[in-house]
Design a protein that fits this description.
TIM Barrel, alpha/beta, seven-stranded parallel beta sheet
């Protein structure tokens, strides 16, 4: 995977899946019961290491991604956080007046020490050839949960907040950029080979907002990380960016682009001409299996296999995905003929 992120073509391409440690695996569900709560699973290195290793043991993926959650960053800044079963995260919505004091009096890295321990232990326990990926949420995506207090279909509360309170939004994104970069630097210090920045809600913004709220904060993170770890690859994943993917790599400085499944393969080829791309199988093709899965895999390999490609889904694997379909996908990618 590191060769591909460096711009080389490797065929068959390296393979991993977003959310590869998760509810589609029976062993994950069992560990989750033992942990008690989702946050306990994230913050207990014994449990976090175990669930991170589970898909590597099963499928031998070429990369392993730290098991955690993007919202541990605001949690470490002192914001409350719970996860309601079947409903996702819940936070008390942040007010504009609270942003200036965000994290005041908090030992950010002490709260996240279990995450850094998990990364360090993973680097020891993973096979040497398995790339270890650390990650954070992009400031815009993290801010949407902090502002609305939960996920919403089109992030209207956060967009309205940004339009009505532009100075407060800029201050919030700047603070999140600063601490997110520090978080990634500590993950790299602990042994992460690569880091990924997840901007899951990039696709709801207009062009000007995308530039101000997605591109600029991620570029700030990249600059800060590169000042300390200039050679660590950084993957940017602005899900749903559509035509705005063009120029994102150059404007942010990320090494590679993660592409969601809506990106046409013709566009993906154009983006690949500037460097490595990652993706972009529709997760529902993986759920469907059979010919739908095979055709999706084959189309990506045919279009992108001649350049630097990390094979992945276009978003995270869903809990209802049959394990045998993952086995089928892995086999089809790894036995493909160039």
């Amino acid at each position: 995977m590191l060769k591909v992120l460096g711009g080389e073509t490797v065929f068959p391409p390296p393979l991993w899946m977003m959310r590869q440690a998760g509810r589609y695996l029976p062993e994950y569900r069992e560990t989750r019961k033992q942990a008690g709560s989702f946050l306990d699973l994230c913050y207990n290195p014994d449990f976090a290491v175990e669930v991170t290793l589970q898909p590597i043991r099963r499928f031998g993926f070429d990369a392993s991604i730290l098991f955690s959650d993007i919202l541990v960053v605001p949690h470490a800044l002192g914001r409350d956080l719970t996860f309601a079963e079947g409903e996702g995260p819940r936070m008390t919505p942040i007010e504009a007046a609270e942003i200036e004091r965000l994290g005041e009096g908090r030992d950010f890295h002490a709260r996240l020490a279990p995450v850094y321990e998990t990364v360090s232990r993973l680097r020891t326990e993973l096979p040497k050839e398995t790339t270890l990926i650390g990650f954070c949420g992009a400031p815009w995506t993290v801010a949407t949960y902090m502002i609305a207090g939960r996920g919403t279909p089109d992030q209207a509360p956060s967009r309205l907040f940004g339009f009505r309170e532009p100075e407060a939004m800029a201050m919030l994104l700047a603070r999140l950029s600063e601490v997110s970069a520090a978080y990634l630097i500590r993950q790299i210090d602990a042994g992460a080979d690569v880091v990924q920045i997840f901007d899951s809600w990039a696709g709801v913004l207009d062009e000007a907002s995308f530039s101000a709220w997605c591109v600029e904060p991620v570029a700030d993170i990249v600059r800060r990380v590169r000042a300390v770890h200039p050679d660590t690859p950084i993957i940017g994943f602005p899900r749903g960016a559509g035509s705005l993917f063009a120029g994102y790599r150059q404007r942010t400085g990320v090494t590679a682009l993660g592409l969601d499944w809506s990106v046409p393969l013709s566009q993906a080829r154009d983006l690949q001409a500037q460097g490595a791309v990652q993706g972009n199988l529709d997760p529902l093709r993986l759920v469907a299996g059979g010919r739908a899965l095979d055709d999706g895999v084959d189309a990506i390999l045919k279009a992108l296999g001649g350049g630097p490609l990390v094979f992945n889904l276009g978003h995270g694997i869903t809990p209802d995905c049959p394990v045998e379909n993952v086995e089928r996908m892995v086999k089809r990618v790894r036995t493909a003929q160039g």
